[in-house]
Design brief:
Largest sheet: 5 strands, antiparallel
Distance between the termini: 44 Å
CATH class of the largest domain: Mainly Beta
Shape: elongated
Length: 251
């Protein structure tokens, strides 16, 4: 699905949302890369409608078998006369797809890049960084990573945007880009009681592990705990259900 990519002049900040309006004036153009909300929602609605129709087809097939799992619910469903069965299946599927689409839009990342500022927006929140804070922008698997000149991590966000276009936007505005986190090999796997961590970091990592087990319901808590760890000088990355950490060698 193609993302929405906009170029906005410094003197015209309309229609870019909070990502391009916060932080005052910027130097030169601003590039905003974000998934199109309408296209994403329509895609999910279309998929949901298709799945709803397939459910009615599957139900009609199941009732023709002598034995099949979920045959009871299938018989109940096919007791609805046509065309209401098909219409209802499509309508319910489309409605569920619309809900999924709204959630997907809410969870999607939007990136605003100018020569003097970078902003990352997700879940109605925005993180903003001055251009001279950023030493390197890197891809780490499915995550976008902003690194300071000292190797300290500034931000790490899940990203579904096309990497080639992100790389082009950042390099066009004068930022260094890497296709892999240059500090990836420095990360060590965390287990409770790991030596070498600063005071309080182990407890934060344990709390973050618990929050991640709860899934999306505690995603904001896990993000906040990541920021607390950064204040202690500890960088965290996730791989499946495991946490890995590193501590930059600050001058």
């Amino acid at each position: 699905m193609e993302p929405e990519i906009r170029r906005v002049g410094a003197g015209d900040m309309r229609d870019t949302g909070d990502l391009s309006k916060k932080g005052g004036a910027v130097d030169g153009d601003v590039t905003v890369i974000a998934e199109s909300a309408w296209l994403l929602a329509l895609f999910c609605v279309g998929c949901g409608a298709g799945i709803g129709w397939l459910v009615t087809v599957l139900a009609r097939w199941l009732v023709t078998l002598r034995w099949a799992p979920f045959k009871g619910p299938a018989e109940l469903l096919t007791s609805v006369p046509e065309p209401w069965l098909s219409v209802g299946g499509v309508a319910v599927g489309a409605l569920l797809g619309l809900v999924v689409g709204f959630v997907a839009v809410h969870e999607s990342l939007a990136v605003s890049v100018s020569r003097s500022r970078v902003a990352l927006g997700i879940r109605d929140a925005s993180q903003e960084f001055e251009g001279d804070e950023i030493g390197l922008v890197a891809r780490d698997g499915k995550q976008l990573v902003l690194l300071g000149a000292d190797g300290m991590e500034l931000a790490r966000e899940d990203c579904r945007l096309p990497w080639q276009r992100l790389a082009g936007a950042f390099t066009e505005h004068g930022y260094r880009w890497a296709d892999e986190d240059p500090y990836r090999e420095e990360f060590r796997r965390w287990v409770p009681g790991t030596p070498g961590l600063p005071e309080g970091a182990d407890a934060l990592l344990q709390a973050r592990a618990a929050a991640r087990k709860k899934g999306e319901e505690d995603a904001d808590d896990a993000r906040e705990l990541r920021r607390e760890l950064l204040r202690l000088g500890v960088v965290v990355r996730d791989e499946k259900k495991r946490q890995y950490w590193r501590m930059p060698q600050l001058p």
